[in-house]
Amino acid sequence: MTIDPEIRQGIEARLADIERRFGVEVFHACESGSRAWDFASDDSDYDVRFLYLHPRDWYLSLVEQRDVIETPIEGVYDINGWDLRKALRLAARGNPVLFEWLSSPIRYVERPLAAGFRELACSVFDPRKAYHHYFSMARGQRRAYLGGETVRQKKYFYAVRPLLACLHLLEHGGIVPMRFFELIDSVAVPKAVREALAELLRAKRQASEAAESGRLPVLDAWIDETIAALHTHQPDSAPPRDMVRLDAFFRTAIGA
After folding, report:
1. Whether pTM exceeds 0.90
2. Cβ atoms 129, 94 nearer than 8 A
């Protein structure tokens, strides 16, 4: 998806302002939500997520300090980030959200540190932890939003995408593709389901973020059948993480 130049300029200006106000360096910033997944509506927010680091002495304080930067939503701009040390800890724990940020196809900032961070984080990716995250997400979306006579169109995608992610992890074990049709092409999905999703996506892109549609039996059946089938499966876990390597990267990054 192409980002409007004026919007991109607004995002970059806000990130530069964050660097000035908080005294940090943003080394990676990306789109993390429906725009990166390729199923945004025209009025979807811009969900900008970033990774940053402080000067060395900030990390040497005896006082535990806040390791996230959260800014108020301003119009279509939703911009938040994590500190480097927090992000490394989350990588070690297999946090799937971090890996989505790192694999986003829409990037606003990409400084040299980002490449080394991405390579290191991906080396400790744990398919099993990611699987449990996506499976829980799919069940939660199905239970909370897909029970009425009408359904917000985006909620179908919020249930289908994590199920596709689970299938991808079972079959391939690697990082889950962000782009929706790249993900769906990586797994076996019935033709009728693909066609229903393609038609729903066309409708969603032409409607507002809150648009609703009638229930889609072909998707309802596939979601329920897939949740039932995945309940007794999980991929192999990753080998033990190399904390020594993570520590070494952190010390080098902050100049310690």
Report:
1. yes
2. yes
